[in-house]
Amino acid sequence: MNSSNSDDGDDDCEEDDVVERREHVEGDDELPDDELKLVAQTFVASLGGSLSIANIDKDVLRLTKWGEPSSLFKISRPSYQGLSSYGAIPTHELREMATTPLGLLFYFMPKQLWVTIATETNRYRAQNIDSEAKKI
Q: Ranges of Acidic residues compositional bias (predicted)?
């Protein structure tokens, strides 16, 4: 990396910068209640003293817009190394099943669900066969 003046956006990072990893401690970033109230009161006061949309100073509200990030982060490796850059296309098996809506249903429904449906259907038939036979 070159430390000369360049406009590529990387001039905030240097080779010898070491980022120390820390564990997040629950409650570490919380303000005490009195400081939190003071921050909330100061924010409301900066907007004109009221959170009513009719009373908010619109110019002050516009000044609170999103700004540029305070620092730039350079990622040394891609986030998902195994992620393919190719477009998603259906598999050969799916294309064969897609000829009918029922084929798609059988393709996407888990096998265990079909086993459960068959088991319950057979159980229902066994429980009700006598009453159905008596009706005939």
A: 7-18
